[in-house]
Structures are given as C-alpha cells and as structure tokens.
Write a structure and sequence with these properties.
The protein has 273 residues and is of the alpha+beta class. 30% of the residues lie in helices and 31% in strands. The chain is globular and about 60 Å long.
C-alpha cells in the first residue's frame, strides 16, 4: 500500500470519486473550503483507480483540531486503512484536542483509538421562510473581528483563518445588536448552509437562524449541535426535515471540549467542527 500523502487542491475530483464509491455526496464548494483551511490526507489506490482512502484535518491554532471526511473505498474496506489514516492525523494534530462527528460505521474505529462521546449532532434541512426581527441585523466588515472573538469564546480556539474565508463567501451574515451572537449563511450547491451559529439562548438562536435564512433562494441546512435542545422541535415545527439519526460528536486528547459549548449552536461543517 502506498504512503499517506497530502492532496493538492486540483485533486479535489479524486475526493468526489471516492465519495461516489461510498454513496456520499458533498458539494464541491464544501470540499474547496476544506482544502483552503485544512490538510487533506490520502492513500492512493494500489490498482491505480483513484484513492483508497482520505481524511481531512483542520487545525485551529495550537489548541483544537477537527477531523472529517474519513473515507475508505469499498473495495479496500476492512483492511485497517481507516485506522491507519486516523493514526496519521492524530499524530499530525500533536497536542491539540481533536473533535469529530462519527457515523455509525466509523464510531467503533474512533472508540478503539481513544475518542469519547461528548454529545450529538442532528442534520436539519428544508425550505425556511426567513425574516430579520428585532435585535438582529446584517453584519458588515466592521463586525468581523467581533465575530471571530465570539467564535473563539465558544470553541476555545482561534479559527480566524477559516472564518475569514467563510465570511468572504457568505451570502448573509447576521449579528445581535448586543454583540452576544452571530450566524453565517453561505451557499453550497442546492442548499444555504447556516453555520457556524453562536447564541446565548434559544430565543436569540431562533432570531439569528431566521435572519440568516432571509432571502434564501434554496433550501437551508443547519447541522444542530445539542447546546440548545429546544431548537430541534422548533425547526421541525417550521417544516424542516431531520436526518435519519443523531450523529455522535466525539473528542480525543482532553477531558472536555474547550470553550463555552453551551453557546455553540451549529458548526461550520460537520467535517470542520
């Protein structure tokens, strides 16, 4: 088997090919963001047909890292490639706390490596009629430093590089008038992704989500963490659909996730934390 190597951005189509093999479908815009902010590691397929596996590591300063998109081609399953890729990114992460969201098939691998469950994430999607209510306004460039500071408080890490790239491509960014929360909305294929979202309460989170959805010309998608559990039934009541199962969030290398996670409502992406 070949050595693990870093993929170049122009090799993004290889990731899409591997996803298709596993019947996954991630919009290229999301992959592009992952290539710009993180490191995409891969194993070339010995038969010369694309990749045998890949995984993405996104490091945030020296405290936190996120792992996602851990994929192994069907024909190379059950050969230890997933474990090999994960051991590689854990070594690359160094002393950072490492977070991920697990699938049903990946969770046993992560548990064997020492990851521990910390909560859950629910994928929600569908049409959402947005509106901007009292206490929330559209953000401008002058708000970006405050947004990065709020995000750092919630996650316990400096994610300014990823946020800067995300803010540059955002369709809509909203903040509370009192500076307690924000939401970023950006388009990826057929969906407007709303995330990250930081809010001090369910009431504020609802206002931010509706404001971020305002003007959307496509369905929205929000990957809800369990910081504010009342948001799930609220979104269901508005007609959004939930994914088939709650996905476990997991952590490696620390007793608890850093930051004020009771305010961290939705991640950038499942694969980026």
């Amino acid at each position: 088997m070949h050595d693990i190597r870093l993929l170049r951005p122009e090799e993004l189509p290889l990731c899409l090919q591997l996803e298709s093999d596993r019947e996954w479908s991630t919009d290229p815009a999301k992959w592009q963001l992952m290539f710009e902010t993180g490191e995409v590691y891969a194993l070339d397929a010995p038969d010369g047909d694309g990749l045998a596996g890949c995984v993405v590591l996104t490091s945030y300063g020296d405290r936190l890292a996120a792992v996602g998109m851990m994929l192994v081609a069907t024909r190379y399953g059950r050969q230890g490639l997933g474990t090999r890729l994960m051991e590689h990114v854990l070594e690359a992460a160094g002393e950072r706390t490492v977070e991920l969201t697990a699938t049903r098939f990946g969770r046993p691998v992560y548990e064997r490596l020492g990851f521990r469950p910390t909560g859950g994430l629910t994928i929600t999607y569908g049409p959402l009629a947005g509106r901007t209510g009292a206490g929330v306004r559209a953000a401008g460039p002058g708000d970006h430093a405050a947004i990065e500071a709020l995000d750092a408080e919630a996650t316990g890490a400096d994610r300014s590089k990823a946020l800067s790239l995300l803010l540059a491509r955002a369709e809509r960014t909203v903040v509370t008038g009192d500076g307690s929360g924000f939401a970023i909305a950006w388009n990826a294929g057929p969906q407007r992704v709303i995330g990250p979202v930081v809010a001090p309460s369910e009431e504020v989170a609802r206002a931010l989500v509706l404001a971020a959805a305002d003007g959307a010309d496509r369905d929205v998608r929000i990957d809800l963490l369990d910081a504010l559990p009342g948001l799930r039934p609220w979104l269901a009541g508005l007609g959004l659909t939930e994914g088939p199962a709650v996905l476990p969030t997991m952590v490696y290398g620390a007793g608890a996730r850093p930051g004020a996670r009771d305010r961290y409502v939705a991640p950038i992406l499942i694969s980026m934390g």
